[in-house]
# Entry
Amino acid sequence: MTVCDFTYRHYVETMKRALEEGYKILTLRAYVEKRPEDRRLILLRHDVDLSVQKAGKMARIEHELGISSTYFLRLHALYNIYDRKNYRTLIEMVDHGHEIGLHFEPELFIHEKRSLEEVIVREKEILEELLGIKVHGFSIHSSGRIREIYGIDYEKFFTDKLRDVFEYYAYSPTITRSFKYISDSNRYWRDGCICTYIGRTDRIYALIHPFWWAEERLPVVTLIEEAIRGEIL
# Structure
């Protein structure tokens, strides 16, 4: 195993090792739908914050490894999901068996006299209409920050109305309670890299942001500059 970093090589090595150690790697929807009782499970989730093309790169890597994961898309982002190149990438991801969910941004609507429930349902419909798929789940963008500023309890956000149109919410206790949750938010593993848990923690819920990963070790400013230019590193 190479040193822990944010290179594709390290990601591939980590996922291969997980498979060799007997982990079943699942999308969130697959877990919610089947509730497998396998001893070793990894729920693999990606929030697509800044680049569809970087997400597509990671999705292709996973497809080559024979695994599928969940990708949550923003409708209000640096990228445009209606861009032809991005659209083709998203369709490829769906064709390869990856799940597409909604990465909802409530802060855009908190100060408007609009129901957050109605907005999120409409965004779900937009994503479904564009890609010709069924969106089963959603996550909240910057949920910790928004909870701190606006006092919104997102553990209670999955209301009865939303349960009628979504199968799951990414942070529902029914998903998180029996898993070790780890995340590379802001390109920082607060509890250690995912590779350190393989083999010693049986059930892992991993949130990995494709934007931070590249072919080689790169500074954050370089990643951001290239994302603005629409390039993949």
Q: What stands out?
A: The longest helix spans residues 116-131. The chain has nine helices and eight strands. Residues 179 and 203 are 5 Å apart (CA to CA). The mean pLDDT is 87.
